[in-house]
């Protein structure tokens, strides 16, 4: 049996008495780090961020506005405080293989100290060495040269210079060693070996210093170029971690990821540059996040049309190898006259947190399945949560937080209930609420502005409704134009009277920033033939695969219902009238069947009742989407033309939990001006539309006065006419 719905079934029933407050001023504000409705996601995120092992990177899935970024970020910061502070990372010149600079890790803040100390050491070299060299530092006359060779150091000078280096190195080693260290670490031993190589290099090129007192541009340029190799390239400076004890491991969010921002690169140089190649290396966020976490949006990477695929491929290699090769761009390479410089890959231990929608992630799986394999921990943010008194109270506390955050007027309990209904409507579900809390925040702000304009002390439910009405007014221009064209008769829609083979189906139009429902007329014609059911829109390639599937199900049901006459001697045409933009979806399959049965039986259909619903092969009516928009859109058209108390809609009974209609439709149903019927199968629907019994077969035949009985009679007539090649067409009115 079909059900006529009453007003109480058309929206979620909420009572102020169920909530223990009168205004949000009485509530404790919800904390920023509360994972409202995301308990499973929080457990997964906590597990993934605590498991700092290769391959266990974290993938955060969810829609924008669900809190996926902010909540994950706060959890990352909390977990990072339990991890070790990061090291500074510097590069030193490699005297044996200059193209392979030496990596060195120092305590946070010591990298800059070492760079400053090395620069001071270089300046002292320039100042002290000429004096230590004595006459070797003076210009050498031609007559004093022997076989073109400079004078050699005597043992006394050599020891003096060695002692100078040893004294200076003690300061440098102290910086690298750090405070409180008793035993030399591997980095300290490596640095001591580097200093020994530096001193050998200085003695091997002692003539450079002997010319330091000669003031000319050639000598200065040569000396500057030579001493540049003694400088320190601070790739990663973590000084702030040393200054703030509450900070743990690095946490970096790359808001605009590019190839260079992630992987680093080479600082551009011109032909006159005297900087050694290793000093041109610059770190990216992967090296900066060593020992910590790096957060990225997959959409930002995909949005880089120039290098998006390259970024993913490079990131894949990093995840596989655990090391990063800084590459020189082709532009930088062409400017570097010193030849190609290819430093060794640098190790980096980084947990990648990748934020994506489900569609973006599944697209990534299709394109780069091996890459997706490195994200073993999936944090899936749900788009809804079960509705309960606790959930409602938490939503109210969230509203209180927004009030506090933006310094707004407090909300009354009725205003909060209106906001809760809005969250239900976000997902069209009476038993669950949406988790798009950014949408809730925007509505809170809009409602508070309206309350301020009205000089109200509190934000009331009427202000929330005004905010929603304002949104509708700002965005409903396309619907208004369509409504006017229907009222003016340009688009043919009848909402009164009866017609054979003609019905109003309900469509859902989604324009991105808004969506609305609108009726479309479906008409059917039947005559003797052998082509079966023809959809004119499909014949001209204006339908999608889901609609075509629904039409094939309709054909199957029709053949099964009149199996003794199969194959049917029937040619029937169906068309969506005045539809020029294409048809997709199977939610009109019930309406198509009703129009076809009306044309086949000659029984007229009430035009005031519109239909939505998809059918299966057994005639059961299945749930569809966009239900509330469809009903509200049709109601507005009936209201504009004139409500007569006979108009309404037929919907699937399986959609009852999705009913969240606005107050105007609810009021009209309560007043008996508009009706909503819920059906389980197509027989219930055809009886509501025609006022005639659908028909139950007895002894293999349907009752003569039933819709299916009349259709059966005409099909038999078609069969005889088709066998004798006599054209017959049913009369329609």
List the defining traits of the structure above.
44% helix; 26 strands; 4-stranded mixed sheet; alpha/beta; 733 residues; 5-stranded parallel sheet
Structure description:
The chain is α/β, with parallel strands linked by helices. It is 44% helix and 15% strand. The model is unreliable at 330-339 (pLDDT under 50).
What is the topology?
Blueprint: E1 3-4, H1 39-50, E2 58-61, H2 68-80, E3 88-92, E4 102-106, H3 110-133, H4 155-177, H5 186-204, H6 206-210, H7 217-227, E5 233-236, H8 239-243, E6 251-253, H9 259-263, E7 265-266, E8 281-282, H10 285-288, E9 293-297, H11 298-302, H12 308-321, E10 323-324, H13 330-335, E11 346-347, E12 351-356, H14 358-367, H15 369-372, E13 377-380, E14 384-386, H16 389-406, H17 413-427, E15 432-434, H18 437-453, H19 461-475, H20 477-487, E16 498-499, E17 502-510, E18 515-528, E19 532-535, H21 536-539, H22 545-561, E20 570-576, H23 589-601, E21 605-606, E22 609-611, E23 614-615, E24 621-622, H24 627-641, E25 648-652, H25 663-670, E26 675-679, H26 682-690, H27 707-723
Parallel strand pairs: 2-12, 2-13, 6-9, 9-12, 19-20, 22-25, 25-26
Antiparallel strand pairs: 1-26, 3-4, 3-5, 7-8, 10-11, 14-15, 16-21, 17-18, 18-20, 23-24
